[in-house]
Design goal:
The protein is mainly α. Helices cover 69% and strands 0% of the residues. The protein has helices at 8-34, 43-49, 62-84, 88-101, 107-120, 122-128, 136-140.
């Protein structure tokens, strides 16, 4: 059973990416339906109230901001599932999603560096990126 252990860094990256994705998607839905980010009580309100740093989408129409948040937030789910399924595209797409999420303020500025650090650890890299020779028989057939 050696080699079947799941790295702790992959678990941390998955949970943080999931929370970031949910936060972006729900805040995008709130922007789309209500025209403003949620505030007040609740997890989403607390996270919205603690926004800091630059928000590159502040000068764009509210509807566009909403769709960007929804798309990037829900795409994190696909990226995380791809990482667990060891898909070749998943690592690169997660890096791209991290770059896009880093343009938002608040939770993204804390979560993105943590995700990137966890994905850069050797144990996670060896788990999510299969050996180069493993697909050679499928390609040549």
């Amino acid at each position: 059973m050696q080699g079947t252990r799941i790295p702790l860094a992959l678990l941390i990256a998955s949970v943080v990416a999931f929370v970031l994705g949910i936060w972006l998607a729900l805040s995008g839905l709130a922007l789309r339906f209500f025209g403003a980010l949620p505030s007040g009580a609740g997890i989403i309100g607390i996270l919205a109230d603690t926004s800091f740093g630059p928000d590159f989408y502040a000068n764009i129409a509210v509807e566009t901001q909403a769709w960007v948040r929804i798309v990037v937030g829900t795409a994190f789910a696909g990226g995380v599932v791809g990482l667990w399924l060891r898909q070749a595209w998943a690592f690169r797409s997660t890096l791209l999603l991290c770059a896009l999420a880093a343009t938002f303020s608040g939770l993204a500025l804390i979560a993105v560096p943590l995700i990137l650090i966890c994905l850069a650890t050797p144990s996670t890299r060896s788990r999510i990126q299969p050996a180069l020779g493993s697909n050679a028989s499928q390609v040549s057939a």
